[in-house]
Inverse folding.
């Protein structure tokens, strides 16, 4: 089916309509936070579509972006395969319990994935990240991830914000101070992504379901939560819903974050340097934690 946001292909009409609705959710949020100019693209729900076919389709129709994603049933199948490969000690019932739990906890992630596509197509067209330096685009990894997270449905965002407040009350080595976080690599960097992919389950489309556990899983969760928290802080402090779009445009035009902050930070009440921004950030983070949630004084 076709809408103002793009073309949507699936095995049945209901799935195509659902994908179109997810795209509408993502586009609305993208216009609010990043840019009124939204590139037209396509979503193809098929884990069986070869990557070469996807590339040929995108090129043949001159589309800025095409997101190939798996249907819920396909994702569950890939997750089962990954769990059986990485955790052979699990019983069949335990595998099904984890698949069901993952399906409920991750919710609808297609708007998130569409957000990644919109962000790259709008600010970094034709560019991919250097895998050793960045996760998906040349943007800082926190900004790239925030662009996708902000496209998620309100219920998912509310849950992430709740989890971040809970994380603040639990000492964690994965919660980074602001100067480090601004430059931090995505926890699933190129090397770790390759290692996880080797133990995960892949489809013909190139989609890989990976199971990140232990320290990697905790680091990944914290990175997502802190990326959203930083986006929330910048929006609230500046009073501008589109502040991340302003930053992204400056970076895409060759400025550094420090340059942007020196020029645009003061009128937005962010300060002219990272040191001042950090002071505002820490005050904002402290205000998130209610007295009853604060850790006991040491």
């Amino acid at each position: 089916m076709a809408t103002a946001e793009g073309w949507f292909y699936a095995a049945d009409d209901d799935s195509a309509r659902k994908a179109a609705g997810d795209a509408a959710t993502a586009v609305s949020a993208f216009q609010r936070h990043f840019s009124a100019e939204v590139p037209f693209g396509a979503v193809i729900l098929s884990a069986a579509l070869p990557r070469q076919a996807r590339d040929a389709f995108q090129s043949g129709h001159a589309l800025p972006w095409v997101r190939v994603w798996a249907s819920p049933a396909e994702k569950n199948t890939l997750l089962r395969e990954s769990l059986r490969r990485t955790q052979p000690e699990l019983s069949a019932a335990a595998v099904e319990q984890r698949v069901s739990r993952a399906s409920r906890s991750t919710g609808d992630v297609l708007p998130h994935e569409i957000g990644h596509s919109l962000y790259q197509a709008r600010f970094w067209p034709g560019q991919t990240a250097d895998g050793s330096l960045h996760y998906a685009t040349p943007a800082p990894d926190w900004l790239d991830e925030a662009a996708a997270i902000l496209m998620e449905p309100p219920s998912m965002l509310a849950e992430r914000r709740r989890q971040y407040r809970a994380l603040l009350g639990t000492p964690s080595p994965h919660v980074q101070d602001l100067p480090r976080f601004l430059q931090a690599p995505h926890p699933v960097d190129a090397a770790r992504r390759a290692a996880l992919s080797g133990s995960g389950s892949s489809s013909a489309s190139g989609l890989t379901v990976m199971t990140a556990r232990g320290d990697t899983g905790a680091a990944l969760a914290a990175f997502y939560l802190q990326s959203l928290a930083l986006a929330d802080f910048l929006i609230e402090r500046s009073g501008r819903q589109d502040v991340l779009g302003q930053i992204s445009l400056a970076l895409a035009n060759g400025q550094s974050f420090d340059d942007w902050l020196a020029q645009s930070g003061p009128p937005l009440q962010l300060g002219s340097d990272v040191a001042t921004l950090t002071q505002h950030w820490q005050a904002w983070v402290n205000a998130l934690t209610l007295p009853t949630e604060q850790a006991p004084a040491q």
The beta strands are 6-9, 41-45, 65-69, 201-202, 208-209.
